[in-house]
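Need a sequence for this fold. Nothing fancy.
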């Protein structure tokens, strides 16, 4: 049985190639956004027992903020990191995560 892969390329536009109708920049940005959300989700999972503030988390939040039209979701996530009570911190981070995911256009309705 032969496997066939349909790959659709269009002409070059500004030195970039479209793959499956998406420009390479758009695809890479979506992958990076999903990776960023994964890092934020991991921080939420660990935040009850650990202080999750780190250089990596700061870099992710900076990356998201640079791409966000509205900066408030990132500010909410940063504020949630400083909540003293672990359960309240997790709830605040989860709420902020949903806002960040919506801002990136990747909210699927579940956390």
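Here you go.
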């Amino acid at each position: 049985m032969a496997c066939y892969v349909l790959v659709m390329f269009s002409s070059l536009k500004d030195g970039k190639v479209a793959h499956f109708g998406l420009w390479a920049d758009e695809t890479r940005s979506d992958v990076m956004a999903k990776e960023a959300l994964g890092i934020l989700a991991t921080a939420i999972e660990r935040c009850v027992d650990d202080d999750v503030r780190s250089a990596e988390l700061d870099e992710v939040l900076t990356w998201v903020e640079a791409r966000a039209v509205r900066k408030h979701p990132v500010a909410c996530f940063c504020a949630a990191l400083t909540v003293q009570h672990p359960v309240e911190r997790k709830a605040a981070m989860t709420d902020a995560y949903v806002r960040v995911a919506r801002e990136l256009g990747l909210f699927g309705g579940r956390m």
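For context: Strands lie at 18-19, 22-23.
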